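Protein Entry — a single chain follows
Next Lines — sequence and tokenised fold
***
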Amino acid sequence: MPKNIPTVPIYISLMGLWSDMGQVDIYDKWLRQPLEKYGAVRIWFAGRWNVLVTRPEYITDMFRNEDLYAKAGSQKKIPWSVIASLVGDNIINSHGETWKNYTAIMKPGLQKTQFDSKPILAQSRKFVDVLLNAQEDVGRNSGVLVNPIIQRFAISAMGESFLDIDFKCLDDPNTRINELQNIIKRTIFKPLYFNFPILDKYPYIFTSRRRAFAIMHEFETLLDELVRTRPNKLNRKEPLATQDELVVHMLERALEEGNMTKEGYLANLKIVFLTAHENTQQILNSMFWQFGHDLTLQDKLRAEVLATGITEPTPEVLNKLPYLTAIICELLRVYPPVSQLINRVTLEQANLGGNINIPKGTWVGWNAPGVHSDPAAWGATARDFIPERWGDKPEEIMAKYRRETVRGRFIAFNSHSRKCLGQGYALLELKMCLFELVRRVKWTVDPGYKLKLTSGGILAPLGCKVRFEELDTGKIVETKL
């Protein structure tokens, strides 16, 4: 391991076993000072010592040199583990020819120039309806636990946009695919097994891990069956036009034509399902907290939305709204949903940024909140939520978004050749959902809720409760989509 960077004590990685501290508190107390001084540290994760990076020049060096710092996820690092059985070898974690093949097959569906926004708007409207119904159920003086409803929305919207299926999660909270996500998230992010995955080799001793493997298998089997027997597929009489194809159609064709194995098909089907709803889910969790305790943000965005006089926004309308665009950029900066990822391995001896010698076979990764809150990159207000920092015009805001990404100072969607192919969809979905929310409701965080962030893995408030009030401006909803 490198000699010229500090080592974070191993017990810090295990804080989640005995402490209720959130990950930002843990970062501030033990990681911020060494990372802002040295730009990298040695840290324990997944049963080994790794190099964790936050300095932008180190980030860009790592991202630009894919053939040296190769993508390699749990399927390579800990192939026997529960998480490896969940994600497999997919487009995010694969490398070389395998990654190129997956990308050639899936990129047109993940990075569409024009996503059909109508299903997203329809699901956003239903989302608001469900939130208001939930508020009515608990009474005006109680808060609604928002995360479960957000997850149902995110799965439903993702399903229609990528997998050609409405999972009906907003209609029924007890759908098995939704229930499985709750179980999987509780299972995967347990600190003991996250940091000592060797324990997954002994499911006959640790019965909870035997159940965990069974849950991962059930999810894979159910998702495969639901997609294979979806009504849109069974009832379709004419071939789809190329421009109407979704990523699931591309995956199915690749499987049928022998360009992808069944194992690869299932792994990529699962990773689309997981990532295309998870990121939106956690950003919306953070948004409800941020907007619910700082109502000036809500008021300013609502004024911009209502000034359009539009109830059926198109992507063109949404992309012309500067404050909406800036709000989402700032949410992604302050609350990056994937907070830390260590999924690259050095294929040869490396010299990171010309300063840190890293032996061959060392795992390296990044901490996004650390990158995004470093005053050296974002100034004295780095830790404050200030949407205006992005600019006043949509084109100016997105230019800064791209510029900071390339410079390694904004990594919510990774960067360079391995940037997230679905980020365009994520931005559209968030814009559509926020447009509908502020148009129809206002909300405040329940007075009894105290902010606590997740302890690791994903970054979002835990157990946030919100009080909703329907607005007169949102009571007339056009039904034509």
Summary: DSSP finds 21 helices and ten strands in the chain. The chain has a mean pLDDT of 94.
